[in-house]
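Quick question: what would this complex look like in 3D?
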Amino acid sequence: MPVSNVSPDCKEVRFEIASRDFLVAERLAEKDNLELTGIYHTHLIDSAYPSETDRMSAFPNFSYLIISLPNLRFSEMRFWRLNSNNQFEEEVFEILN
Amino acid sequence: MASVYIPTPLRKFTNNTAKVEIQASNVDEVLSNLVSQFPDMKKHLYTSDGKIPSFINIFVDDEDIRNLQEGATDLSDRSVVSIVPAIAGGVDFSKEELARYNRHIIIPEFGMEAQRKLKASKVLVIGSGGLGSPMLLYLAAAGIGTIGIVDFDVVDDSNLQRQVLYGVKEVGTPKVESAKKRLTELNPHITIKTYNEMFTSANALDIVKEYDIVADGTDNFQTRYLVNDACVLLGKPNVYASIFQFEGQVSVFNYLDENGERGPNYRDLYAYPPPPGLVPSCAEGGVLGVLPGIIGSIQALEVIKVASGVGDVLSGRFFTFDALTFQTRTLNFRKNPNNPISGEKPTITGLIDYEEFCGLKAEKQVKEITADELHQWMIEGRDFQLIDVREPYEYDIVNIGAELIPLSDLPYETDKISKDKKVVVHCKMGGRSKKGIMELEAKFGFDNLYNLKGGVIEYVSNYDPEASIY
């Protein structure tokens, strides 16, 4: 589900998901008996590794998918989740369909 | 009774339950009752001063409580309270920084990752003269996040022949202040800290410990050994360079590589300094102005490689450049097991007096008496005291009837030493007694002490040839 970037800072370098959008997504998941397990965001110049800003803003028990799109072309994607030391650890993922 | 909707990231704390029923009449009560039921949630729902953190939003039905009565918002039995995390992120640079560092970021082998490391790194540049000038300009321009500069000097017109950080306007002002001003104009996105003082054994460890990388741009041996030893003691890489007339040298000392191996340091190359005066400084011997520009830039390159982790660092290798013949050489060198600070049996475990170590402190003289004079005094029956500062076993081998006070006992036996008449102090050859006299003069105010030149050995070989000599 695509959402808009409501970051009050420069939108080219920061993102924030509106609470209302998050709420809608959770309700939607609940209705279909699914679970909202994470979010994704893109890195337009960076690799698919989380930045320090990503880490500082991250919640535990939540997956962060980062898609690297240098020059707007897909290069790689990686899943991340905070460990007990508040550091990102990469998660193995499988695409089902 | 209100229903509380728990978001996925916090569900771990409610045994994976999405919806919890809580007895409460307003939002504040909901949160405090929720936390007393699930205590692990507390750090996510309250700041240390008991407020709702900025990264948590609370909705009652479909409205943010900031638009209602905040925590005092009343609830009905059918109210649904939703805890919503603020999901955010972004790159570690501002838009301006990304534009500034674009030519770094677009190099595939460098990229955002290396630029991020530069921003996170703290580099201490010691000396902001010939080497420091180009180095500081390039480090600041490259985006090293924190740069410390140590220099006690003021800008002199004769510096401008090579110290390109300064101009005529800065002559007479402290170098660190002029440097900070110039570098801030160049790059406002970084932090510059200045130390307008001499780098000494007294402040070295306190300053160096605040940084990840040290770059030595000093021009004398005592500071070079001090920088080296401080870096070895604190485990910091030391990017070294030196210049003289037409020749420059660069190396990276004490570098911890990716395998956790610590590279050699300055004392592996030169365990001890040359005698004072043998190697002149730039101030004495001169230097071609462009040379520090070349060598300081190579030094900046190595700092950037250490900071970013890109490329092969010049560790265990010593680069030399001869500007006249354009001959460059890169010599390999290894750790020396006899290195006095990092070898197998280190004898240096803290910073020492580097002026003294480099032979720069003129040795203080003490009053002396020759064996012949002493013999004369004895024959004449003069009133004087004779003290032997050797060890008892030495005294047993040979003595000339002196009172025995071993050197280490001297400070505790000063009441046995006369202040009213002349006192001759001796040891075996004159070294220890000189040390003892210097200590007694400095700490206890004696001014009547005479060192027996050549010690007991000199005396007995002249006047008691039968005595045992050891």
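Answer marked as accepted. Chain A touches chain B through 37 residues (CB under 8 Å).
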